[in-house]
Amino acid sequence: MDKLSFTETPTPIHFFNKFYSNHIYIKRDDCTDLALGGNKARKLEYFLADAIEKKANCIVTYGAPQSNHCRLTAAAASKLGLKTLLILSKTANPTFDGNYFLYKLFDVEIIWTDVEKVSETIEHTLKNLGEKGYNPYFIQGGGHGNLGTHAYKKTFDEILEQQKDIQTNFEYIFHASGTGTTQAGLIAGKLINDFSTNIVGISVARNNKRGKEVIYESLIDYFDENGITIPPKLNEIIFEDSYVGKGYAHIYPEIVEIIKKVAKKSGILLDPVYTGKAFYGMLEYIKKHEIMNKDILFIHTGGTPLLFNYADKFEEE
Ligand SMILES: Cc1ncc(COP(=O)(O)O)c(C=O)c1O
Fold first, then answer.
1. Centroid of ligand 1 to alpha carbon of 165 (angstroms)
2. Cα–chain-centroid distance for residue 243?
């Protein structure tokens, strides 16, 4: 598959600390080179290569007002000299700092939509752009789709090389799971390489049933498109929804605490919506499942601007 380069790889893996006799390492996908980094930079390397091949001159995507995916799409498209149009869903109390502020640096055009009208707004927008003479390329919210899955299949391959270099074997890989695309890619990598790594997605929003189903469908799609005949197994997908709290972007005190602890100990900044929730979830999961004496990798998938967006949550009482 064609690929552009928006970041240097491999991203580093750092030893973080010992926890319950396990060795915890962090892979720094928050350090991908584009506009404050994150997992979407890797996905966009494939999506935008496809857009260029299809001679697109305008990139359209969808997200929340504070979407990491929209920030990185705008940055990548702008770098290639392409117009970006963001379709943003109206949320209850939108804020205009964090990622939203960064969109503005890339001269994006924004169209607001009610959550129930997302599909029709996307359809109208693409039609209107076509009528104006543009050749638009649409990327699903969160960089969902086979090219996104492929980006994290390749990341799994990258981890295998890195673990050889540091003479370890990660029996567990934890990360924040949203659309499930990152997780589908990692699982694809594990199955194709015939590894037994436990890939644990800590849900940031979805319930277990829906989360698993979407990952399963992503795997089927990806394998079908690439002629891979391994059958994925729904009940082997580990999608953990116990740490979602009251839903997407619900930030409870334990998340704030863990973000502070990790920052003070290592200088690594987690965010409250994705990686802080996932890191907290990982530690709880390790305790609950009595995981001991393992080498464990946490993939830091980015989200740094969200820290500024939720600064009020960090004010001392
Ligand atoms: C910082 C961060 N981490 C993790 C995720 C989840 O990735 P995926 O949608 O591939 O599950 C996202 C997606 O929005 C994200 O922005």
1. 27
2. 17
